[in-house]
């Protein structure tokens, strides 16, 4: 059941992304181009997503545990550190350059569009390289 | 490149993204963040933590075919930049979302829906930097 739920989540999320326009870089960039060819559509994506998630979470997070898992696994970090702000700033720069974000590009991989595949390959390299570097630094700190 | 304003599709798509977010929390108790799911798939902490991520990504992979079956065609993907910029953009996004611990879905939807201060700060930060980047590329460099 765990795996079926995860698979269904991927399908619902993917269809939502494809329908919304988040997988279309021209539309994403136009959302931010208020001074040019502005297209406010993506504001509706965020609005729709937030209203549903906000109301749904209010009910679900009151349950004692999820259906197919022992407990809810929520982020525990609280600090507003340099990684959070610097990383998010970098993400914004990359999103502005390419028009793709991870959630927007991944559901489009199945179209086999060459631009989507190019972006996702670079995304995977970026994530993997950062994870390895973080892990090496953590080990080094632990040794000291 | 002009695009058509699509308030209803975008609102409906957004609602589905929200639905996926609460469905994953309800069933597995997990955050529906594309970055978190992918990063944990690429760099797994354990086998049991890997498989559900693989299945979720498989669902995403299957979604264009379902979309095509219903709508008769794939959704439009218009890319106004060249391959080299896509690679640079992809690398920067990969590094950024890993350091920042999330992207539009994890911070922008899940985190804000939980009223997490970290996610609110992250979302404001990337929205501002995306807007500045687009402004510089479109109106200062003029690409």
What features would you highlight for this structure?
heterodimer; A: mainly alpha; 6 helices; 0% strand; B: 143 residues; mainly alpha; 76% helix
Written description of the protein model:
The complex is a heterodimer of chains A (144) and B (143). Chain A is 68% helix and 0% strand. Chain A is globular and about 50 Å long. The model of chain A has no long low-confidence stretch (mean pLDDT 96). Chain A is an all-alpha fold and 144 residues long. In chain A, 51% of the residues are buried. With 143 residues, chain B is an all-alpha fold. Chain B has one domain. Helices cover 76% and strands 0% of the residues of chain B. The model of chain B has no long low-confidence stretch (mean pLDDT 96). At the A-B interface, helix 1, helix 2, helix 3, helix 4 and helix 5 of A face helix 1, helix 2, helix 3, helix 4 and helix 5 of B.
Please write out the topology.
The complex is a heterodimer of chains A (144) and B (143).
Chain A: H1 2-20, H2 25-32, H3 41-60, H4 82-98, H5 102-105, H6 114-143
Helix pairs in contact in A: 2-4
Chain B: H1 7-27, H2 34-42, H3 47-71, H4 83-100, H5 104-113, H6 117-141
Helix pairs in contact in B: 2-3, 5-6
Short description:
The complex is a heterodimer of chains A (144) and B (143). Chain A is an all-alpha fold and 144 residues long.
Q: What is the number of helices of chain B?
A: 6
What is the total domain count of chain B? 1
Distance N to C terminus of chain A: 44 Å
Q: How do the SSEs of chain B run, as a string of H and E?
A: HHHHHH
Helical amount of chain A: 55-70%
Helix content of chain B: over 70%
**Main beta sheet of chain A:** none
Q: Low-confidence parts of chain A lasting 5 or more residues at pLDDT below 50?
A: none
Quote the average pLDDT of chain A. Answer: 96
CA-based shape of chain B: globular
Major interchain interface with per-chain residue totals: A-B, 119 and 111 residues
Alpha-beta content class of chain A:
mainly alpha
> How many discrete structural domains of chain A?
1
Largest sheet of chain B: none
Give the class of chain B from helix and strand content and strand pairing: mainly alpha
Shape of chain A: globular
* Rounded Rg of chain A: 18 Å
